[in-house]
């Protein structure tokens, strides 16, 4: 058996390590060949790692990182539903997608008309779900996180959920986005709450991706690696010594069928917290309207 290395791969959600409000760290074993790979190959693997399923949570981990990188206090959590008159047919997912596209076009037109910066956004449309007998359960609806640009209010975002004639499409609710520890993850989990429900994630152009700096294959010995994931898994002081400036949210570790351990350390900025734009983090968060 060749030499084994223990890799530390950070995912920094913010402008830099010193200011990012959120960070995840992967600790896992790599071979000598993987250790010798080019920087480009290592970066590609880190990006794949961030987007892959972890603990059966389908792609949610990357969305948590993406939202923490780009949104924060003062931004909006938006939910749009349908009344019976405007509800697309259960199988008409294209119409549901187009409704949100048309909504964002109206938002952009309103911004341009009123001299307001167009917002960034990330959203998910949840569709009515077809069961084995061919029947459908649920109703199409939309969840979005929308940037609060100066002049763009919650009332505007609720009032623009209309058809081309200006008639309301259905109930719409827009709340302040709170980003205290774990709340962004709670929102992503809430959006993906129904495993049977098909959904489509979309995002605006220009979102900043989580940063994946070059990995460190020399910091962790085998002994330290194993102790960290067993003896110190719940030791807040231990992890905060490893990553100064951050406070521990939790540590998750799994062992594959091949006996290889993979540990993920989830951390927040130690101060009250800052969003992607540098604003302070609130104490609590209303996750938004249920549907």
Number of helices: 8
User: Which stretches of 5+ consecutive residues score pLDDT under 50?
Assistant: 53-58, 272-291
Radius of gyration: 21 Å
Class derived from helix and strand content: alpha+beta
Number of strand segments: 11
Listing every helix as H and every strand as E from the N terminus to the C terminus, the arrangement reads EEHHHEHEEEEHEHEHHEE
Report the mean per-residue pLDDT as an integer.
84
The end-to-end span amounts to 54 Å
> Could you give the order of strands across the largest sheet?
8-3-7-4-9
Strand content: 15-25%
Helicity range: 25-40%
Q: What spatial form do the alpha-carbon principal axes imply?
A: elongated
Largest sheet: 5 strands, antiparallel
Fill in the keyword field for this structure.
291 residues, alpha+beta, 5-stranded antiparallel β-sheet, 4-stranded antiparallel β-sheet, 28% helix, disordered C terminus
Word description of this protein:
It is built from 8 helices and 11 strands. It has helices at 32-36, 39-51, 60-70, 93-114, 154-159, 183-191, 222-230, 236-242, and strands spanning 4-13, 22-31, 76-80, 121-126, 129-130, 136-137, 141-146, 172-176, 199-203, 246-255, 261-269.
Short note summarizing the structure:
With 291 residues, the protein is of the alpha+beta class. Helices cover 28% and strands 24% of the residues. Helix 3 (60-70) crosses helix 6.
Compile the SSE list and pairings.
Layout (H helix, E strand, L loop, with lengths): L3 E10 L8 E10 H5 L2 H13 L8 H11 L5 E5 L12 H22 L6 E6 L2 E2 L5 E2 L3 E6 L7 H6 L12 E5 L6 H9 L7 E5 L18 H9 L5 H7 L3 E10 L5 E9 L22
Antiparallel strand pairs: 1-2, 2-11, 3-7, 3-8, 4-7, 4-9, 5-6, 10-11
């Amino acid at each position: 058996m060749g030499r084994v290395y223990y890799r530390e791969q950070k995912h920094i959600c913010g402008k830099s390590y010193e200011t990012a409000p959120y960070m995840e760290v992967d600790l896992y074993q790599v071979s000598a060949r993987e250790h010798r790979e080019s920087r480009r190959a290592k970066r590609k693997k880190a990006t794949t790692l961030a987007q892959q399923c972890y603990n059966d949570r389908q792609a949610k981990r990357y969305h948590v990182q993406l939202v923490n990188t780009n949104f924060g206090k003062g931004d909006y959590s938006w939910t749009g539903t349908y009344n019976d008159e405007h509800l697309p047919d259960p199988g008409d997912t294209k119409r549901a997608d187009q409704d949100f596209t048309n909504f964002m076009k109206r938002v952009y037109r309103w911004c341009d008309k009123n001299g307001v910066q167009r917002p960034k956004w990330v959203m998910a449309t949840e569709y009515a779900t077809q069961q084995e007998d061919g029947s459908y359960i649920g109703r199409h609806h939309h969840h979005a996180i929308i940037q609060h640009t100066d002049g763009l209010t919650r009332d505007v975002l609720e009032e623009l959920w209309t058809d081309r004639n200006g008639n309301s499409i259905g109930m719409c609710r827009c709340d302040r986005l709170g980003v205290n520890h774990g709340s962004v993850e709670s929102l992503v989990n809430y959006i993906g709450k129904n495993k049977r429900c098909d959904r489509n994630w979309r995002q605006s152009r220009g979102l900043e991706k989580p940063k994946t700096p070059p990995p460190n294959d020399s910091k962790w010995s085998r002994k330290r690696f194993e102790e960290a994931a067993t003896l110190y898994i719940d030791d807040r002081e231990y992890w905060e010594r490893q990553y100064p400036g951050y406070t521990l949210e939790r540590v998750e570790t799994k062992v594959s069928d091949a006996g290889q351990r993979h540990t993920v350390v989830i951390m927040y900025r130690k101060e009250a917290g800052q969003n992607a734009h540098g604003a302070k983090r609130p104490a609590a968060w209303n996750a938004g309207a249920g549907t």
